[in-house]
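> agent: user asked for a holo structure of the chain below bound to S-adenosylmethionine. Plan: (1) validate sequence alphabet, (2) canonicalize SMILES, (3) run complex prediction with ligand conditioning, (4) return tokens. Step 1... ok. Step 2... ok. Step 3 dispatched.
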Amino acid sequence: MAPRVGRPEPPVRYDEIAPRAPDGPIDLSSLAPGGGPIELDIGFGRGRSLFERAEAAPEARIVGVELKAKWAWRVEQRRRRLGLDRVVVFAGDARDLLDRAGPDGSVARVFVHFPDPWWKKRHAKRRVLGPSFLDTLARLLEPGGALYVQTDVEARALLYRDLIAAHADFALDGGRGWVEANPFGARSNREARADEDGLPVYRLLAHRLPLGPPAP
Ligand SMILES: C[S@@+](CC[C@H](N)C(=O)[O-])C[C@H]1O[C@@H](n2cnc3c(N)ncnc32)[C@H](O)[C@@H]1O
């Protein structure tokens, strides 16, 4: 049927249809079935890293949080089509959402792929990876748990490295934190694009202290 002229469809309000975390405390250990390691993907954007990681780590239970409701909704549709119940996605600010999350020490790995697309000084407070978010991640990570951060912006990479180095609960791998390749077998959309364009990617790996037995 031809669309009726002058009667546009009402705009989709992604804010209303995007998947949302429950109000109040969030129990990460009960969001997805099974007993596999819990992983977080912060700001997953178009979601490639979630789906590739689900394939690379078939036991992992992966919780993604994305600020943009539209992307969270789209990724949720794809997740449902694939029947991937080990992957859970929420729209929202990861800082607020994970502040309400527990149990402490329940997360094995945190991925932060290409965060913080804002450049202006007045947008500094939007930056996700700052000291207080690192406190939240340190609380949630198990001893020896991994924090992986990557970006194509050198100045940001240096800033993240300095922040992580200054945090008492993290140890940068090899003392400096830089790793040559993504060790997790899952690329994000931005990472794949950077690889295709031949752009450098700055990759940082840290672990939650105390290190305990080596994390895989
Ligand atoms: C440059 S994009 C990278 C997307 C994806 N990780 C990738 O590498 O392709 C940064 C993403 O982080 C999201 N983001 C920024 N701040 C956030 C926050 N506080 N909580 C959740 N997501 C956030 C943005 O909406 C955006 O989708």
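> agent: step 4 complete. Summary for user: The longest helix spans residues 69-82. The CA atoms of residues 13 and 70 lie 9 Å apart.
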